[in-house]
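Write out the 3D structure for:
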Amino acid sequence: MEKILKGAHIREELRDHLPYSFGSTLAGIGVLGVFSYLMTQAKTGVLFSDFSVVLFHFFHPFHVFFSATTTAAMFGRHERNFFKTIGVGIAGSVIPCILSDILFPYVGGRLFGIPMVFHLDFVLHPFWMTLILFGGILTGSFISERVARSTFFSHSIHVFISTMATLTYFTGFGLSEWPRHLLSILVIGMLSVIVPCCFGDIVVPHLFTEKVHRH
């Protein structure tokens, strides 16, 4: 009975979060267009691909932080176990963030014939990425019962930041002429947000919790 209730609750959470995922992808493409236009008008001489690399190194760490925050906060809504929260936070953020920000755009770009470059921050900057990860887990554990609708706000921010990390990986590590591949970006961008992020934020916390409390 508990498994049936848990499965129904996961489906309900996914259904409620899907509109934010779609909307965030479209908003992210719009923001990318604004950045590109402003740089063109400013005529700074800086390539948009180089600027995108800088943006990626801003959005990707914040994505890890908010992913860990949301996962820990979602788990904390149903079960209070600090050490288990750490494990769930790691499982629900590290792999989904790497999939969403790096592997999905890398593999997707290659499938569409775009010469993408593979770049993994957890290998290149392990200390700072681990520090950010645990900062997110501790934040999520703290706010889960103290901030009303904490998972709604953290997931909304997480989804938008995830979108920007995915898109800036595209434009910074292979896709310099991104407006020509707008449909490819839209498809891969949506999949990159919906699959790993919703899995990490929603499915993982519910799989490891023993009881589901409806909110």
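The chain has one domain: 2-208.
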